[in-house]
Write a structure and sequence with these properties.
The structure holds two protein chains of two kinds. By secondary structure, chain A is of the alpha+beta class. Chain A is 63% helix and 11% strand. In chain B, 10% of the residues lie in helices and 43% in strands. Classes of the chains: A alpha+beta, B mainly beta.
């Protein structure tokens, strides 16, 4: 109940000054009003631009963050012997790449590899299955399939030469390029 | 990728820098009582001091490699007879030679060189075989292999397969960059290697046309696998496939009109046939599992292939008339990459037992599987056209080498490269 008279008083003062302005010079008043309007529009535009730039910077920063996270997760996903199932570790790494791919429009190439054990042509098929497993997981999580190319190298391109599990486990992989 | 028209470049390349890829031969096991035979240095009827090739030495090496003969050392020979009337059988029996081979090398019909031979039984003191072969001079070694084939067949009853050729893949590993791949054609003893294709992208799965005039293979030179066929006489090359996914395992049908291959363009790897005239494809298998490594039965009515449709890789048979698929191998958890001998009975394959990959022979009649090797990373078996020997690749000291074992397990030898790896041998059919 206390505030009402104050509002009433303030309103009456504003009204009085408006009447005063209107009476002094109508043209000047119109010009000033237009200038004020333009100034406020410019300010609003500026503010919108700033907000937009800020938002873009935030998106870019988020993209960069996701890209960095993807790179930090590594571009090589490892598999168990004679298996094309994504390990928990591989899944975490692929998830990081999916995060980045959903915010950019890059295309990726998935290269499947096996270790040297078993026959070359069967291994070519097994390595394709590995590359497809990564691709299918990406597609299931929203990456468009047309942005993913898969290729199998089988056992033809090892990264670790020589026999034994220490070498073999490095060679059973899908590389994202 | 460099494609090489080998006919014009043969000699250039023989001297060039890939000599390290040439195969050496190390006999690792022969039969218990090899037949002693004296292969006398052949006479020379041409101009100049001696024949451009020691043909008797070619025959000698072939027979040694068979494991079934023990040639007499030249140092132990009391004489080097060049004609039948110069042979003193008592001298040869004295150094325990059951047989004596003599021969002559000289000019034949215009532009040709001629090799004649005579084989004698020292106990019966009589000639048991004779003959002559002609060819152009650069093929003189191949003529030597023909003489070896004739002697081998006369004394064992089995057609010889020395006058045949091999294709294989050589890989020079480059730890700091891309490896270097070569597709190499050589004689059956690894001599006279010729580079058919070379480059920094993988080359795989070479196979022969039934007439021995062409090879097919997979090359990744376009950054994706594709199947090519290449004529060995003209050097003309044709790209047969360029599908999305796998393009692999090209193998010619026995009549040469069709090529079986593996494509994954429709999802999982399946076996297809390509009509080589119309290029029309027919899909044979359609399964979500891996179907790969097709190979033809010699009658052309069925194919064997590897499939993991049962959970693990095993050999299956596709009957082209009934379209029925039946499982062939049951022993062990892993049987793959079959090759069928010309008898249609022995199937060489890769068999895994206790984590090791061996070469084994599966007999289609008795359904018995016999493991032939004791090394642990064996692959890519290829059977000689006479069915006697399985050539395959294995690992030794970090490198891949070629190795061979008799189908009956009696004989074995290694064919390492002087340097680098050699893999995926394919033995040619008979070439005449």
């Amino acid at each position: 109940m206390k505030t009402l008279p104050v509002v009433g008083k303030f309103a009456s003062v504003v009204f009085a000054s408006l009447v005063l302005v209107a009476c002094s010079n109508t043209d000047t008043a119109n010009e000033e009003a237009a200038a004020a309007e333009a100034a406020s529009a410019a300010a609003a535009q500026e503010a919108a631009r700033e907000a937009e730039a800020r938002a873009a910077a935030e998106v870019a920063a988020e993209q960069q963050r996701l890209q960095d996270a993807a790179m930090a997760a590594g571009t090589v996903f490892y598999f168990a012997f004679d298996s094309s199932a994504l390990t928990d570790e591989a899944r975490v790494a692929v998830d990081a790449h999916i995060g980045a791919l959903l915010t950019n429009d890059q295309s990726v190439r998935l290269e499947g590899h096996t270790d040297e054990r078993g026959t070359r042509e069967y291994n070519l098929a097994l390595a394709e299955r590995r590359a497809n497993a990564v691709r299918d997981y990406m597609v299931a999580n929203g990456v468009p399939s047309y942005r993913i190319e898969t290729i199998s190298y089988g056992e033809e391109s090892p990264v670790a030469f020589g026999s034994g599990e220490a070498n073999w486990q490095q060679n059973r992989r899908v590389e994202l390029k | 990728m460099r494609l090489i028209l080998f006919i014009t470049l043969t000699y250039l390349l023989s001297c060039a820098g890939f000599a390290h890829a040439q195969l050496q031969i190390e006999i690792t096991k022969g039969i218990d009582n090899p037949t002693p035979i004296a292969i006398v240095p052949f006479g020379w009827d041409g101009a100049g001091g001696s024949a451009p090739v020691d043909v008797a030495q070619v025959v000698d090496s072939d027979l040694v490699r068979s494991g079934q003969f023990s040639p007499v050392s030249r140092r132990d020979m009391l004489s080097f007879p060049k004609k039948a009337s110069d042979i003193y059988f008592r001298d040869w029996r004295a150094i325990s030679a059951d047989y004596v081979l003599i021969g002559r090398v000289g000019p034949g019909s215009p532009g040709m060189i001629r090799v004649s031979y005579q084989l004698f039984d020292t106990a019966r003191q009589q000639e048991i075989a004779s003959g002559a072969f002609e060819n152009v001079l650069p093929e003189l070694r191949m003529v030597g292999h023909r003489v070896a084939d004739a002697v081998y067949e006369k004394l064992t009853g089995i057609r010889g397969a020395f006058a045949t050729r091999l294709v294989y893949v050589s890989v020079s590993r480059n730890p700091n960059g891309k490896d270097f791949y070569r597709l190499i054609l050589s004689d059956s003893d690894g001599q006279r290697p010729i580079v058919l294709l070379e480059g920094r992208d993988p080359i795989m799965a070479p196979s022969w046309s039934p007439d021995g005039n062409e090879v097919a293979y997979v090359s990744f030179e376009t950054s994706r696998p594709a199947i090519y066929r290449q004529n060995l006489r003209t050097g003309v090359r044709e790209q047969l496939t360029n599908f999305k996914g796998l393009n692999n395992s090209p193998v010619w049908s026995p009549d040469g009109n069709t090529m079986a291959m593996v494509l994954s363009k429709d999802g999982s790897p399946d076996i297809y046939l390509m009509n080589l005239t119309t290029k029309k494809l027919t899909q044979l298998t359609n399964h979500y599992a891996i179907d790969t490594e097709p190979t033809w039965m010699p009658d052309g009515n069925a194919l064997l292939f590897t499939s993991d449709r049962g959970g693990r890789p095993q050999i299956y048979r596709y009957d082209l008339r009934s379209k029925a698929i039946t499982r062939v191998t049951f022993e062990g958890r892993y049987n793959a990459r079959a090759r069928v001998a010309q008898d249609g009975r022995n199937v060489a394959l890769v068999h895994q037992s206790s984590g090791q990959y061996h070469i084994a022979v599966h007999d289609l009649v008795t359904e018995r599987l016999t493991v032939l090797t004791s090394t642990s990373l064996d692959e890519s078996p290829s059977i000689a056209p006479n069915g006697s020997i399985v050539l395959y690749a294995t690992k030794r000291g970090g490198e891949s080498i070629l190795s061979a074992v008799a189908v009956d397990g009696g004989v074995s030898f290694n064919l390492p490269a002087r340097d680098g790896s050699v893999q995926e041998p394919a033995w040619s059919p008979y070439l005449d």
